[in-house]
Amino acid sequence: MKILEPMDARSHRTIALTALVLAWLGLAGGLWAEESRNIRFDRVSLEQGLSQSAINCIFQDSAGFMWFGTEDGLNHYDGYTFTVYKHDPQDPGSLSHNFVWSIHEDGEGALWVATDGGGLNRWNRDDRSFTRFRNDPADPTSLSHDRVRVIFEDREGSLWIGTDGGGLNRFDRATESYSRFSHDPFNPASLGHDRVRTIHEDRNGALWVGTYGGGLDRFDRDTAGFTHHRHDPGDPRTLSEDRVYTIQEDREGVLWVGTYGGGLNRLDRAPGGFTHYRHDPGDPRSLGAGRVRAIHQDDE
Fold first, then answer.
1. What three-state secondary structure class fits 206?
2. DSSP 54-88
3. Contact of 272 with 244, CB cutoff 8 Å
């Protein structure tokens, strides 16, 4: 197996994937203006060994390898060939489910894989097997739900797992057990909704959780409670939509929130309200659509 060179050593080479087209288009204005700059895309698809064309996530690990999570398997790419990992009912060390939502490498170098129905997997580099973490109804310290959408590691090294139906989980590496944070309609300080879509830690160490239906939550580490930011039709300074897909903090410390249908929100922390950026069919300079799935700040 050939390992990809470090990024700085291979900066002259372009391994461009069709799945990254949207990211490139975000730079289009500056790139197309440079006529001497010739951008070329090489397609890496089923013909080259990719297991499936619906790619949910792309990740590069610390060794330079590329990983692709699809709806039919996990793909490892060394720049030349693919190694595909799939679920095998006869092999307890195989991937627990073929539908992969996200991939994360933690501070200790372990690779984690979130699946839609098979829980969480930790890849073992030595034998290329997987350790599975799944929900056990009889064990309250197990993963709360097998549909895992997001994996996030905070600055203290804690691993947070967002599920689609079981709320938020914090993983204890020492005991390999989970602490659960779920929605309780009788507890106003509980998680706003059990469908978690995104997790973000800001520069002050505050943990923010975006839910699908419960708005944006801020976690208080001291009380283990949540402060909610939800949409209120009667208040234009509230969150524009309760289905939150992405959270990004810019270099000035401003928090930006992308929603599913409500456009983009900027949190003004001092007054405590949100500024909305929505699509307006009558304004060609407005946001292009109401669904915002990703936010990124460029070098400019």
1. coil
2. -EEEEEE-TTS-EEEEETTEEEEE-SS-EEEE---
3. no
Q: What Å distances lie between residue 184 and 167, 188, 248, CA to CA?
A: 10, 7, 27
The pLDDT-based confidence of 43 (bands split at 50, 70, 90) is confident
Q: What is the pLDDT of residues 151-182, one digit of tens each?
A: 999 999 999 999 999 999 999 999 999 999 99
Q: With 0-12 CB in 10 A as exposed, 13-18 as middle and 19+ as buried, what is 287?
A: middle
CA–CA dist 220, 135 (Å, integer): 25
- Check if the beta carbon of residue 166 is closer than 8 Å to that of residue 157: no
Residue-level length of the chain: 300
Mean pLDDT rounded to a whole number for the chain: 89
Digit-coded pLDDT (tens) for 49-108: 999 999 999 999 999 999 999 999 999 999 999 999 999 999 999 999 999 999 999 999
DSSP string for residues in 220-257 = ETTTTEEEEE---TT-TTS-S-SBEEEEEE-TTS-EEE
Q: pTM for the complete prediction?
A: 0.85
pLDDT in tens, 109-137: 999 999 999 999 999 999 999 999 999 99
Cα 217 from Cα 234, distance rounded (Å): 20
Backbone φ/ψ region at 76: left (φ over 0), alpha (ψ -120 to 50), beta:
beta
Say what the pLDDT of residue 34 is.
55
Cα(54)–Cα(70) distance, integer angstroms? 6
